[in-house]
Each structure stands twice: as structure tokens, then as C-alpha cells.
Amino acid sequence: MAYTIYEGLKHTDERGSIKFFNTLNMKEIVRMYEINPASTSLVRAWQGHKFEKKWFYCSEGSFVINLLKIDDFNNPSSLLVPEKIVLDSSNPVVLEISGGYATGIQAINKNSKLMVYSDFSLDQSKNDDYRFPVDQWDFIK
């Protein structure tokens, strides 16, 4: 599996609004964190995991996320081409990425916030963390 997109829904009434994902099963999630980039020019790339699964939810603003299926985590091909996905807080979507991928992330709007959920503890994640230089592959804006 490359990735799965869970479409959310939004309800608004006189009390305000809610966004919800009734088809998203959160049983595997063991931790979460928020990314709030200092700048829209900053690209957080490339970070990969052989086994760790992650879910991404843009709670404010919007982000471009690039996905790369890594062919060899110790010596990946320079010919890999990323796939671009845009997450926007006005359209409630959760992006699930299985292990075997590296990501590149860039905020489109100032003050954007990206919630990240993982099925690995921090210690487990550190043992499955692969970093590659930002210029190793082209980032698709």
C-alpha cells in the first residue's frame, strides 16, 4: 500500500463547526506531534521509515507533501520521482502513509499547522529513522 486518503466531513451550525473522520480507525496510533514551520520557504526533506506508519492532518493552512517509495534504504536510487499531495485545512483529509516511504513537507501558507500521528513510540521510531539530503531528489511544489 502506498497511501490512503480518508475524506472527512464538516458540519456547521449556530454553535460553530466540527470536522470529523468517522471511517478513520485510530487503534494503531501511539503518539502525535504538530509541525508548525518557521517559514513557507523551508522544505523538511527527506525523512523515511521502513516500517513506521504515519497519518497527516492539516489543521490550519495548507501543505505540499512529497512521497517517495524508497527502493533501498541504505543506497536509494537517485532516479526516484516523488508524488505530490496537497493537504488544505479547508478540506478535511487525513493522509495515511505506510512504511517504506520518505516524505518531504513544505507549508504553502504562513502559520500552517500539520498534525502527525504514528504507530511507533519515539524509541521505536528512532530505530527506523532514515534521513536523506534535501537535494537528493527534486521536491515538487
Summarize it.
4% of the residues lie in helices and 48% in strands. It contains one helix and twelve strands.
Topology:
Blueprint: E1 3-7, E2 9-13, E3 16-20, E4 31-35, E5 44-49, E6 54-60, E7 62-69, E8 83-88, E9 93-97, E10 101-107, E11 113-118, H1 122-126, E12 130-131
Report what the structure shows.
The chain has a single domain, classed as Jelly Rolls, CATH 2.60.120.10. The strands form three sheets. The chain has a five-stranded antiparallel β-sheet, with no helix packed on it. A five-stranded antiparallel β-sheet has the order 8-7-10-5-12, with no helix packed on it. The protein has a two-stranded antiparallel ribbon with strand order 2-3. It is mainly beta and 141 residues long. The protein contains one helix and twelve strands. A hairpin with a 2-residue loop joins β2 (9-13) and β3. The two termini are 24 Å apart. The mean pLDDT is 96.
Query: What is the CATH architecture descriptor?
Result: Sandwich
Shape: globular
The mean pLDDT is 96
Report the biggest beta sheet as strand number plus sense, adding barrel if it closes.
Answer: 5 strands, antiparallel
Low-confidence stretches: none
Helix content: under 10%
Number of domains: 1
Topology pattern, helix = H, strand = E: EEEEEEEEEEEHE
Which superfamily, in CATH terms, is the homologous superfamily?
Jelly Rolls
**Count of runs of 4 or more consecutive helical residues:** 1
**Helix/sheet category:** mainly beta
What is the fold named in CATH at topology level?
Jelly Rolls
CATH class: Mainly Beta
Binned strand content: over 45%
C-alpha Rg (nearest Å) = 15 Å
User: What spatial order of strands do you see in the largest sheet?
Assistant: 1-9-6-11-4
Distance between the termini: 24 Å
* Record field, number of beta strands: 12
